[in-house]
Structures are given as C-alpha cells and as structure tokens.
C-alpha cells in the first residue's frame, strides 16, 4: 500500500465499555498518516461471546483492521482466534498502535503530536453537530428535524439533552423531543417509521418510573418548587412511560432503558443502533 492518495481501509473498534478509549486512540493514530481515509465501525458494550460472534461476522463482511479494548481473557482469545482464522489484523490498543499502522499501511508516521486536533472538515462537522443539538434541544427547532442523524424521544428526565450533546461531540447531529401525553409529535416525525429510510433515525429513551420520580423531585427542589403535582405522581409517571413505549412500538422505533446507563453508555448504545440500521439498509439495497 504505497499510494497515499488512494488508501482507504476499514477499522473496527471493539470495546466492552463505551468505546471512548479505543475510538480516541484510533483517531489519534490514524491522523498521523497523510492521504489515508479510515471507515470506522464502532462496536461498544460487547459483554458476551454471543455478541462478539455477531460482530466477527460483520468484520468478515468488511475486513480491515480490528482494534479493541476487552478485559475478559476468553473474549480476547476468541477475537484473536477468529481474526487469525480469517487473516484479519487484530491488536489491543495497549500495544504500539502507531507501529502497527506503519506496517499495515506502508506509510511513515508523521510523528507530529496533536494532528487529530487540526481544524479539518471533521472538526467543523462536530461544531455543526453541537450547534444543531443546542438549537433542537427539548423540542426546539422542530421545523427541520428531518436534517438530524438521530432524534431522541422520551419523557422528562431521561437524559435526552446530555446524550445529544455527547453525540454531537462525536459528530452526530442529534435532536431531542419531549414526549408529553396528549401533545402531537412535530410534523417532521409524524410520518417516520422505524426503518429510518425516509427520515432521521428515532430512538426512544425510557427509565424506571420510581427513579424518574426521584429525579423529578430533586429537580423541583432545585428550583424551590415543593408542590405535589402529577409531574411527580408515581401512577402518572408510570402512565407516561407506558404511553411513550407504546408510541415507539407502534412506529417501530427502538427503545433504550437508561435507568442504569451512564450518558456515555447511552450514547454508545445509540451509535450501535445507528450502525445496525445503516448495515441493514445497505443489505436491503444489495438485495434489490
């Protein structure tokens, strides 16, 4: 691989956590190579061999480089054995990643720190995504939701806003819409089905009602409002959550329970769902 202007390769980032570490290091290392374009496939929250087997099949379909952060020895060995079987380069990011890429790409590293922070198109894409998230927070700017990569919908206090901000930092244009029983959805969402082909990908966020009540009560105390309202009534909150789940089921929108997820884990799960949707749409096109 010697023609720097034409080098394109797939890189699969496998992690048993949110994938932030392997994602950041892979980006930092790949940025050291001029004329190299990496198509990233992110596989976060891999916690079982069953999950890993499915990912290995995806890697076989688009072979390239596999980088991972897996703690479990059995899963590490399983991944290495599969990659060895299919002759796919595989490395833990704890190994010298840059030396590995030098050997794989046949291109000398620039040896220049901080190249991943250069003001390139990707940087401005993240800025654009951040502005989009802020302009479309909590149902604002709903007139052009069709421009979003993903729209999060959920009842109050399901971490929609911080998740969108986190996604924006990864270059994903994310908007969020509050679910309020009896209130119509924005027009740009009203016709969208779960396949995400004719509009943005929509993901529902939900949380255990008891946890929601506690969060809402804390929120009211912060703004010095201790009144007992339907907003913190457990039965009412249960009805809200159920209605939101029912809406998502009717539309074919996937739902994530964020009760025990951090913001990073929720964002990673959203990205994984987007990757799965993209892969499915590509397969559907190939079958046409």
Describe the structure using short key phrases.
288 residues; single chain; four-stranded parallel β-sheet; 10 helices; alpha/beta; Rossmann fold; 2 domains
Distance between the termini: 34 Å
Give the rounded overall mean pLDDT: 87
Helix percentage range:
40-55%
Number of distinct beta strands: 8
Radius of gyration over all CA atoms, rounded: 21 Å
Low-confidence segments: none
- Tally of helical runs: 10
Q: Please tell me the CATH architecture of the largest domain by its name.
A: 3-Layer(aba) Sandwich
Could you say what the CATH topology of the largest domain is called?
Rossmann fold
Number of domains: 2
Could you say which overall geometry the principal axes of the C-alpha atoms support? elongated
Fold blueprint:
Blueprint lengths: L6 E9 L4 H11 L5 E8 L5 H13 L3 E5 L3 H13 L4 E3 L4 H9 L15 H15 L14 E5 L5 H9 L5 E5 L8 H4 L10 E6 L2 H14 L11 H18 L3 E3 L5 H25 L1
Helix pairs in contact: 2-3, 5-6, 6-10, 8-9
């Amino acid at each position: 691989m010697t023609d720097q202007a034409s080098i394109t390769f797939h890189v699969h980032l496998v992690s048993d956590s949110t994938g932030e570490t392997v994602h950041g290091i892979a980006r930092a290392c790949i940025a050291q190579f001029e004329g190299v374009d990496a198509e990233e496939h992110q596989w976060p929250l891999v916690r079982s061999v069953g999950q890993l087997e499915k990912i290995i099949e995806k890697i076989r379909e688009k072979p390239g480089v596999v980088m991972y952060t897996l703690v479990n020895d059995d899963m590490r060995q399983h991944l290495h054995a599969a990659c060895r079987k299919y002759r796919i380069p595989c490395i833990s990011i704890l190994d010298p990643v840059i030396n590995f890429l030098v050997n794989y790409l046949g291109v000398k590293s620039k040896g220049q720190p901080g190249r991943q922070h250069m003001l390139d198109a990707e940087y401005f894409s993240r800025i654009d995504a951040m502005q989009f998230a802020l302009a479309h927070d909590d149902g604002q700017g709903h007139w052009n939701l069709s421009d979003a990569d993903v729209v999060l919908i959920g009842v109050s206090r399901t971490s929609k806003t911080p998740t969108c901000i986190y996604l924006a930092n990864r270059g994903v244009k994310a908007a969020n819409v509050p679910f309020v029983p009896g209130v119509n959805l924005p027009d740009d969402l009203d016709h969208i089905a779960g396949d995400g082909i004719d509009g943005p990908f929509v993901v529902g966020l939900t949380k255990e009602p008891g946890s929601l009540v506690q969060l809402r009560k804390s929120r009211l105390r912060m703004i010095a409002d201790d009144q007992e309202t339907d907003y913190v009534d457990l039965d009412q909150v249960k009805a809200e959550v159920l209605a939101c789940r029912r809406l998502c089921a009717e539309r074919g929108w996937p739902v994530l329970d964020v009760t025990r997820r951090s913001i990073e884990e929720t964002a990673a799960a959203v990205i994984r769902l987007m990757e799965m949707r993209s892969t499915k749409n590509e397969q559907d096109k190939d079958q046409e």
